[in-house]
Amino acid sequence: MADSVDLGKCFEIINNLTTEAGRLIARNNETRQEFVCKSGDIDLVTQTDQDVEKLIMNGIRQHFPDHKFIGEEESSTGNGVNKLTDAPTWIIDPVDGTMNFVHAFPHSCISVGLKVNKVTEIGIIYNPMLEQRFTARRGQGAYYNGRRIQASGQREIGKALVVSEFGTTRDEQKLQLVNENFAKMARKVHGLRALGSAALNMAMVALGAADVNYEFGIHAWDVCAGDLIVREAGGVVIDPAGGEFDIMSRRVLAAATPELAQDIAKELTQYYPQPRDD
Amino acid sequence: MEMFRLVRQWLLPLKSMTSKSNCAAVDLDKCYAQMNQLVDKAAKLMKEASTKMRLYDTKGNNTADLVTATDREIEQLLIKGLMEHFPDHVYIGEEGTGGAATGRKLTDAPTWIIDPIDGTTNFVHGLHYTCISVGFWLNKQPELAICCNPMIGQKFTARRNCGAYMNGVQIEASGQTELEKSIILNELNSANFEPELMAIQMGNSQKMLEKAHALRTTGSAAMDLCLVAMGAADGYYEFYPHCWDTAAGVLLVREAGGVVIDPAGGEFDVMGRRVLAAATPQLGEQMVKLLGDMQIYHARDDEPASTN
Lengths: 278, 308
Description:
heterodimer, A: Fructose-1,6-Bisphosphatase, Chain A, domain 1, D-Maltodextrin-Binding Protein, domain 2, 7-stranded mixed beta sheet, 8 helices, B: alpha+beta, Fructose-1,6-Bisphosphatase, Chain A, domain 1, 2 domains, 9 helices, globular, Inositol_monoPase_Li-sen (chain A), metal ion binding (chain A), magnesium (chain A), Inositol_monophosphatase-like (chain A), Inositol-1-monophosphatase (chain A)
């Protein structure tokens, strides 16, 4: 099926659409935003989220009416379960780091991945506030603003800079676990950062600016593009317990090297968010 | 409130500002001009060093040495450059270029307080939250401030009573009064890793996590203050920062309309190794209340032999 999909054309179209969507986001980031609470707690959505998702989906539909979508806002408006098929499927997070966006904290992005036969072929992560664009096509390397990038190659946990998140839930058990992992990590690694965007966290690993990213609770649309970009930059993406990465599991661990990934996996107290994305 | 601030700025004579102190009259315009020029030079140096840093990293050379060399180079550039024009001023720099970094009391004398690279770990790794921080204090209060992050091209500047700016555009703190709607910045500092201090640090994080909109950790105290000043974050607290980490940022936040106090509620003391910044006094109060008596006190910067 992959041969009947013109990946070059797909890439060109999504690249242009993300630029357009980026302008919308950057403009709206100037002022602090109105928001609604999605799944209760502090999981937010804004009008911009919805506008961007529409812009991208409509833009793609014009050229590829048969393609499928798994999008963050699609999911939240009640379509819920996302079964991944072999069909070309765009997995979209219109504004990743919505909390940051709502506060005009300039660290959020659009994240778009294209899967064909369940394999990620294209990934784009774009932060228009700071003009940081990360792109990858399977087998062709990872790029940052047109420049080829590589993960850091770091193998030692003591020299690793780790990015993670505190999460969008106030569930006490989860919070305690997050804190416990932070306390453990803080002592072992070079530094710990929490910047508020899952996709950009993965992009930082691909860039080599961070060595590890782990998180429990993310969704498929947060990590689809990042997974390809990290691997194309020479890094690894696995399950936080050490096994194979499962995009629907709500768990991710990206690292500069396999050795570092496994060492981190050994340290983490595990958490299995429910429900899964599928 | 906005109108009042604007009117106040129009009424202040902005043309030529001088101030008396124990020394001869200090020409603030001249100080600012020199400081600005030198920071721009230092920023170029920092950007260049950052590209070399990545090379060293992958070749497995000693990055700790390289970053120290860059720290020193930048501090020397700044302090020697300023000393040429202001030989009588006092210089406090993290690398000790202008005299001992700690152990000196803050006096009324014109004092430059400098961190050549704040967020050194980020700088070594190539993560963009890192900056040069230069504060100028007179009569024990901040008069001039510049924080410059050349990685993402953000330069924050302020002069007392003249507002705060990023890249020449005026910035304002967020005006947020409620902790529930706030992004709070904090750092997980290795100086607070011994079990008792770690328990306090993590305990405070947990409390903030339960109440605030979100928690963020950037790795740079000066950048944290800049983020509050520009309204991107609403509050920041830390038990650790040295005077050179906060000497500029405190003015940026205040000139942007925010507050900077001690995390236990009293007045901010730049030598105290403790800071709490907030968009509004109300938010500051809520943060202080939440922290309660879970406080950490490190050796003061004006006490001899501070080893932290």
